[in-house]
Amino acid sequence: MNNENKSVHEFDFQLICEYFSTIERQGPGSPKMTQKALSFIPNLTENSRIADIGCGTGGQTIVIAQNFPGQITGVDLFPLFIDAFNANAAKQNFQNRVKGLVGDMEGLNFRDEEFDVIWCEGAIYNIGFEKGLQSWRRFLKPGGFIAVTEASWFTEERPSEINDFWMDAYPEIDTIPNKVKQLQNAGYMPVAIFALPESCWTEEFYKPQMEMQENFLKKYAGNSSAQELVAYQRYEVQMYEKYKEFYGYVFYIGKKI
Ligand code: SAH
C-alpha cells in the first residue's frame, strides 16, 4: 500500500501521539480564531462552564482560559495529550479552573445540562459532525452554545484528486450550506460561521510540524511506521498547497434551541 492510499488513522497510535504531542496544536487553528469564536458567545461569567472535547495538549484551551473567567474541562482520548494539557494549564497558573480528563467523545459521562458551552476544535470528525452535534446537545444548558471547527468544501465541485483524498480521510466533509443545515437539524440556531484563514494551516499547523519532522525521523531511524507517518503528513501539506481554494476548516457556532 502506498502512502497516497493510507489514511492517518491506520498508523500506529503511539507514534501519532508522540509526533503531535511535541507541537502546540494538533489541528489547524489559531489563538486569534479561538478568540473570535469566543466573542460570539455572550454572558459568560466565572460560574460558566466549558467542555473542550478532543482538547489535545490544550493549545486552544489556554486561549479560552485567557479570555474567559469560568471553569474548563478538557477531554481527550490520549493520556499523553492530557498529561501535556494539565502541565500546560499549570504552567499558566490555570490549574484551579482548567482540568484535563482522559475520556472518549463517543461515551462522555457528563451530566445533562452541565455546560454553558461545548468547544471542539479540529476533533469532531472523530465521532462525525452530525453525530457529535446530536449526542453532545444534552450536556448543554438550555440556550447554551456549541463551537466546533469542521473540514468543509468551499465549492460545489472540485478536482477528483482532492475529492478522493477527503473521501478516504473523512467522507463526511461537505459544503458549508449543508453543514449549516446539519447544525440546524441537530437542534441549534446558527449564530456565526466563518472559515479559518490559510495561516491557521500553514503557519500554525504545518510549519511547526516541518520543523520537528527531521528530529522525529532521526529518533525513529529505520522505523517504517514513523517514515510513513511523516510521508503522509508531507503529502497532506502538498494536497493543501495544491487545493486550498476548495476546502478548509470552518468554525460553526450554534445556540441550543
Ligand atoms: N483541539 C486540539 C486537538 C485536535 S486533534 C487542537 O485543535 O489542537 C484531534 C484530537 O482528538 C486529538 O487530540 C485526539 O487525541 C482526539 N481524539 C481522537 N479521538 C477521540 C475520541 N474518541 N475521544 C476523545 N478525543 C479523541
Q: Are there runs of 5+ residues with pLDDT below 50, and where?
A: 1-6
Present as ligands are:
S-adenosyl-L-homocysteine
- Write down the Rg: 18 Å
Number of helices: 9
**How many structural domains are formed by the residues?**
1
Shape: globular
* % residues in beta strands: 15-25%
Q: Estimate the helix proportion, in percent.
A: 40-55%
Q: Which structural category fits the helices and strands?
A: alpha/beta
How far apart the termini lie comes to 47 Å
State mean pLDDT (0 to 100 scale): 95
How would you spell out the order of helices and strands? Answer: HHEHEHEEHEHEHEHHE
CATH superfamily, by name, is Vaccinia Virus protein VP39
The tally of beta strands, per DSSP, is 8
Q: What oligomeric state do the depicted chains represent?
A: single chain
According to CATH, the fold-level topology is Rossmann fold
CATH first level: Alpha Beta
Biggest sheet statistics: 8 strands, mixed
Provide the CATH architecture: 3-Layer(aba) Sandwich
Write the layout of secondary structure elements.
Blueprint: H1 13-21, H2 31-38, E1 49-53, H3 59-66, E2 71-76, H4 79-91, E3 98-102, E4 115-120, H5 129-136, E5 140-153, H6 160-169, E6 174-175, H7 176-185, E7 188-195, H8 199-219, H9 224-243, E8 247-256
Parallel strand pairs: 1-2, 1-4, 2-3, 4-5, 5-6
Antiparallel strand pairs: 5-8, 7-8
Helix pairs in contact: 2-3, 8-9
Bound molecules: S-adenosyl-L-homocysteine.
S-adenosyl-L-homocysteine binds next to α3 and β2.
